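Record type: ASSEMBLY
Status: queued
Input:
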Amino acid sequence: MKACTWLGGGDFEYGDVPDPVIGPDDVMVRIGTVGVCGTDVHITQGLFPSTPPQILGHEASGEIIDVGQNVSRERIGESVVLNHTTTCGECESCRTWTVSRCERSTQKHEFFAELASVPNASAVPIPEGLDVEVASITEPASCCLSGVSRLRVDDGAVGLVIGGGMMGLMTAAFMKTSGVETVALTEPVGYRRDFATQLGIDVVHDPSQSSVDDFVADLTNGRGLHIAAEAVGKAELVAKCVELVRPRGQVLMIGVAPAGAPLPVDLYDMQYREVVLQSGFGRGDVFNRTPAELAKLNMDGVITGRYELKDVPQAIIDSGEGKGVKLVIKPNR
Ligand SMILES: [Zn+2]
Ligand SMILES: [Zn+2]
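Status: finished
Output:
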């Protein structure tokens, strides 16, 4: 098969590699769509630990074209989204904590390729009403849904998301579907604000036009937010969220701050106002139900760039420059 192998830094090699081996409990998937993620960008920039050579790409959907001997042949032809981590469901962590901390988990994420072999349980069916291409967003969306599912939602809650990239948009959309009455999003790029409106976000704010402090004061009659989510990955914006919430308000960290980043907040103020700091990392326990949640949203137009497999390096550069909403690779186009 053809694949695009990362060699370190910004270097990739496009060419033939051996087909993946299909084990007795695996399915073979022809990759239709694989998303370019901020993590891929960070890996090529040396900001996320990873060792070359390897095939990157961990947000994929496609079609099952073959199955191992222990898997029902009825799955052949099924459209699926791939969970890059397999969990046992039986260990102490899975039973009492979260499957995302499974002690026997195995990872498989080499999806910038024409084919992938994954454990049967990691190939999750795509429900009716969800476009197969859009379903490739399941992995990043599940991280947002997992974070939102950790929030307490009060009656009449007002929430704000800072940052309208893919993660911010999904976090805001799931806050809305989780019952937060008024959801706002602040983002400087116009078409991302427009997409937020399409997703059902109630109010959008352009931080180049007025300060977020004034915006929140207007939105909440000076009382502050019930929930403020940071989806950029900057410590100072998490600190801003702490300032913007009302007493007993909740701050949700979705953006990934660099390792070693300190949080510049006044702890006295945080304690005095009983602010809750909450974080979401990874898919938690919600991956399998995320496709059905995505199907409830109007995701038309979320994919703003499609690239051939050989153009993975360019797609990663474009994604790093913040072009579009979601860029994807089409390995079998
Ligand atoms: Zn990702
Ligand atoms: Zn486990």
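Annotation: Residues 9 and 44 are 5 Å apart (CA to CA).
Annotation: The pocket of zinc ion (ligand 2) is lined by residues 87-88, 90-91, 93-94, 102-104 (CB under 6 Å).
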